Amino acid sequence: MTPGTNVLSLKNIHKAFGGVVAIQDFSLDLQAGEIVALVGDNGAGKSTLIKIVSGVYTPTSGEIRLDGEAATFSDASSARSNGIEVVYQDLALADQQPVYMNMFLGRELTKPPFGLLDKARMRREAQGLVDELDVRIPSAASTISDLSGGQRQGIAIARATHWASKLILLDEPTAALGVAETARVEEQIINLKQKNLAILIISHSLDQVFRLSDRICVLRRGEQIGIRETASTDKNEIVSMITGVS
Amino acid sequence: MNSVKTRLSGLDFQQLVVYIGFLAIFLFFALTLQDDGFLTQRNLTNIILQTAPATIMAIGLVFALSAGEIDLSFGSIVAVSALSAAVVMQEHSMAFGIFAGLGAGVMIGAFNGLLVAYFKLPSFLVTLATMGLFAGIARSMTNLRSIPVLNETFTDIFGSGKLFSVPSLVIWTIIGVAIGHLVYRHTKFGAHVLATGDNPRAAQVSGIKVPRIRFYVLTICGACAGLAGLLYAGRLQAARYTLGESDLMTVIAAVIVGGTALKGGKGSVFGALIGSLMMGMLNNGLILMNLRVSDQMIVRGLIILLAVAVSLRDKNR
Prior knowledge:
The complex is a heterodimer. By secondary structure, chain A is α/β, with parallel strands linked by helices. In chain A, 33% of the residues lie in helices and 28% in strands. Chain A has one domain: P-loop containing nucleotide triphosphate hydrolases (Rossmann fold, 3-Layer(aba) Sandwich). The longest helix of chain B has 27 residues.
């Protein structure tokens, strides 16, 4: 992957639940090393869109291309095996398990000959990863419930980083965090860019969107209002696009 | 230093309380009952032999609770399994008897699992119902008669036999705990059981087949209860519908006191063993104290209440 290639392209995505249209005619190209923010009011269809890309929902019509090839994901596992990872708003961590087990949740490493868990290696690799991403936790053997909200989100992002080869979807990654913790997580997200991953982020905070993103895509009631280069727009324009009031 | 510290904090109070309780009860009986034969090797061995079936049931329950489910029906499964084995062995060889006993346990467990995992019914209600259902079936199987088990090979293997002068029930306990611990702590399956009980949604989005895990843990519970039924039949050389009837409270208490969380995500097979031995020691000591059966029940109930309260207290600090 080189910067500038389309990692993900969505073309004329349409999704309806029964008679209710959740997404109509959405198109977006996402490039490696690029952060695109998805903004809009509650119910605008942002989460639905994330779920379509992560394989939880199948679009009613439209085309998803991954690295230029048509992709259909039957479920979340197939999206994951294609290098797409999601960081959820509510973290999706198992609280009473240690950090390293969460890092490898569902993809545990085993060792021959009996296929038993290789806890030592998982712990070592998890430690290496949190060190590399500078997630400040006591140790990879710490239990999740002993960590702060920021540390937990750090773990969730580190996990996504470890497994994603193409695309990371972030759904309100800092919604539950304090100011300092938000800053740490934002640093982490910017670092992902250097790894040449494509990033799609949902955020309610326009300040955050302007700090992080390269482009901003606005949704209103399932409709794609427009895409702007972050550098050449301002908050007023985005707000009026979100609300429909100019 | 750092790793020692995390290791120590990992050994939390909930996991330790069972060992403290075990020692406290042991010391209490050792001091008060020293003239009544509590400390004799014979009596202590007896405690281990008597708790073997409960320990095996407890191992199954550790898996169910850790996955966020519960099994209340294992007592009834014990009776059905023991009776199935005994009835089949009246006409057929031991192998068929073992197959029938274990098979009954596995099938009832799988039935529970099917209803919970794929019909999405709560395990508490499903197993409450199957507890009654299979208690009734156990009664009707032989019209309340007890069935003798005369096959000596069977009673040796599952009851009074010895291997290198180690009683077979002790061997079953060791094998059960060793396999249980290994699967629980050192396999993918064990990790997925814990994740499912801890946060089913996280498990699901991580690609773990949550319904399958729920199905398996209840099937394991049934299989363990089936083995416990064979152990009862082997030790008592007979099967009766009352087998396992009184184990519900002691086994659940043993598992909870042993550090397994009622809500799932956390547990210990080894803790369940110690919890089970503690309950066995308690039964034994109360009998040696010459308490009436009614008083035994009251004291046992109170001590279990205390033990459970102490082991869970830490959670809401």
